[in-house]
Amino acid sequence: MKIGIITGGGDAPGLNSVIYGVVRAGLDRFPDCKFIGYKFGYRGMYRNEFKELTRENTSGILHRGGTIIYSSNKDNLFHYPVEENGEIVHRDVSDIAVENLRKEGVDVLVVLGGDGTLSSALEFAKKGVNVIGVPKTIDNDLAATAATFGFNTAVNIVVENLGRLHTTAESHHRVIVVEVMGRDAGWIALHAGIAGSADVILLPEMPYSLEKIAQKVRERESHGKMFTIVVVSESAKEQGGQKVVGRVVDDSPDPIRYGGVAAKLAADLEPLVKNEVRSVNLGHIQRGGEPSAYDRLLSLRYATKAVDLIEQKQFGHMVALWKGQMGAVPLEDVFAGGNKVVQADDELIRVAKGLGISFGI
Ligand code: F6P
Description:
This protein has helices at 15-29, 42-47, 94-104, 115-126, 151-172, 187-195, 210-222, 261-269, 293-311, 331-334, 347-354; strands at 2-7, 34-38, 50-53, 80-84, 87-91, 108-113, 131-135, 174-180, 200-202, 228-233, 245-248, 256-258, 276-281, 317-322, 325-330. By secondary structure, it is of the alpha/beta class. Strand 1 (2-7), helix 1 and strand 2 form a beta-alpha-beta unit. Helix 1 (15-29) runs parallel beside helix 9 and helix 5 packs across helix 6 (187-195). It is elongated and about 70 Å long. The model has no long low-confidence stretch (mean pLDDT 97). Bound molecules: 6-O-phosphono-beta-D-fructofuranose. Residues 10, 73, 114, 137-139, 181-183, 234, 257-258, 287 line the site of 6-O-phosphono-beta-D-fructofuranose.
């Protein structure tokens, strides 16, 4: 038995924990099993660049952030930039990767990734590769599972930073606008905003009104609260406005990178309130450092379930969490309902409203 592992997309706390779990559980189940980790996700599969993973060289990585086999969120082998006659053109190079798997004798490919990485995994499954997906993303936007690993750690990081920002906001009577990640889903903003005592939470799912935010700042002032913390999800936008694009990464399956909404909002809001309005973008800090205990456990449960699926030869599936239990969903069902975004009737929206948190609407 030879198991290939790749980590694709943005890094997330827990990737190394899954690698650790797959190698440990794999050796327990198949004592002669060999493992290779392709470097930088699918790119390594195309270039046949990998490192052997052993009990020894995966020792001590359970708690480490990042990924020891590196990752990339711009290497789509079905639309890959190659140089031809001095020009960059895009080609489907996936067959080269499949051939590399065959040459190395890889029986199963365990793919750790979010929607972009897993949609390529589905295409490889259609080409006959034995694939098992493991759902990773700090955004928590995969509809086919209740939780992706990385999300809990990101929320904890934001909550810790909101605590720090509260002290400055309070000391200087400032409004501080804190930008968090999440792509087109507001889960990080919603969870961290509530747990971190934000006064205003702005979600991509609910375009905001500047005037409503200013009203909340004034209302707080009338109760003697001279500061306000606003948590804004990176792709939130003003009613009738546009999402703020930070950069465009060519060759990425999803080239838009959001960024800058907090700075824009701070500038727009300042003329409407008495306070100085400052902005902070927490950025990649949210993906950094050690996974939380919850994410370590979730990663190890996913890893064990992935090895179960290998043992049962149940390929073409993604491991998933439903009602607290580990399960598996066919890869084609992972994308059936689109991404999981915050619905207006989500229980946490009610919780937040009951606490007096404004959504700027
Ligand atoms: O999907 C994870 C994520 O961190 C998103 O929240 C964010 O929009 C994006 O990746 C940022 O990507 P990059 O690391 O390329 O800036």
